[in-house]
Design brief:
The chain has two domains: 65 residues, Orthogonal Bundle (Arc Repressor Mutant, subunit A), CATH 1.10.10; 170 residues, GAF domain (Beta-Lactamase, 2-Layer Sandwich). The protein contains ten helices and nine strands. It is of the alpha+beta class.
Length: 254
């Protein structure tokens, strides 16, 4: 097949040019540094000619800038602004904000709202901990979808077919550590049994986190309430925190 036939859909039903364009932007999300065309093409297993054409188009459209001195590319702020309106809607949700404030006051731990961003969860709102020793998370930080508490909470709130399709795509990505479907289903069942997702020593050592999907979509998106802190404190208060979050959500939404 001609690699330049970009408008032909691939077997998964995704137009190849769209898939490759998004893959380029997602690569920068992971790298967080400039990269050259050769590296981008190699990491995405993309023909160099196709990579060059897409990179040139993204520069022309203003989504990437090109540094001639080092022959590297990097996203512009235009990329970040694409979802800025959605993040703003989440932060302006009064009911959600009220729940976070009450959780923060009651626990003193770091409280957050996260939403899916590709194969990560991105923290879009943070209420910092009031403890001297705490888990500090910056707004915009990422946590892996298939390993974090907020990621497992998001997955547990989705239809099984959508989760399986997402996993299939994830496991096809270069350099991704494969996730076994049976293991993922077991973890999702555990989320249902506990009433929330819980993770210890997953993203960072000596830390614990609890995630619970907010039952009301915000601008059509599922968002997740998270509480995180040092391992011992979260482990000791796990049941009380889960009960608190569920009670506040129920009282607020009716």
């Amino acid at each position: 097949m001609n690699d330049n036939a970009e408008i032909s859909p691939n077997p998964g039903g995704v137009v190849k040019s769209a898939s490759r364009t998004l893959a380029i932007l997602e690569s920068f999300q992971n790298w967080k540094r400039p990269a050259g065309a050769r590296e981008i093409a190699r990491s995405l297993e993309m023909p160099r000619s196709s990579a060059n054409a897409l990179l040139a188009s993204l520069v022309t459209l203003g989504y990437l800038w090109f540094e001639p001195k080092n022959a590297t590319y990097f996203p512009t702020l235009k990329v970040g602004l694409l979802g800025d309106w959605l993040i703003g809607s989440i932060r302006r949700d009064r009911a959600l904000g009220s729940i976070l404030q009450e959780i923060s006051s009651a626990t003193g731990e770091t409280v957050s709202i996260a939403m899916r961003a590709g194969f990560d969860m991105q923290f879009v709102t943070i209420f910092p901990s009031t403890f001297p020793v705490a888990l500090n998370i910056e707004e915009g930080a990422l946590a892996p979808l298939f390993e974090s508490a907020v990621g497992m909470a998001w997955l547990a709130s989705q239809e099984s077919g959508e989760v399986e399709d997402l996993l299939t795509t994830y496991n096809k990505r270069p350099r991704s550590k494969p996730v076994v479907l049976a293991d993922l289903k077991r973890k999702i069942s555990e989320v249902g049994a506990k009433g929330a997702a819980v993770a210890y020593d997953k993203v960072l050592p000596d830390t614990g986190a609890i995630g619970l999907a907010y039952p009301r979509p915000v601008q059509g998106q599922t968002v997740v309430i998270g509480v995180a802190g040092p391992y011992d404190r979260i482990r000791r208060s796990e049941k009380q925190i889960i009960t608190l979050i569920r009670r506040l959500v129920r009282q607020t939404l009716g």
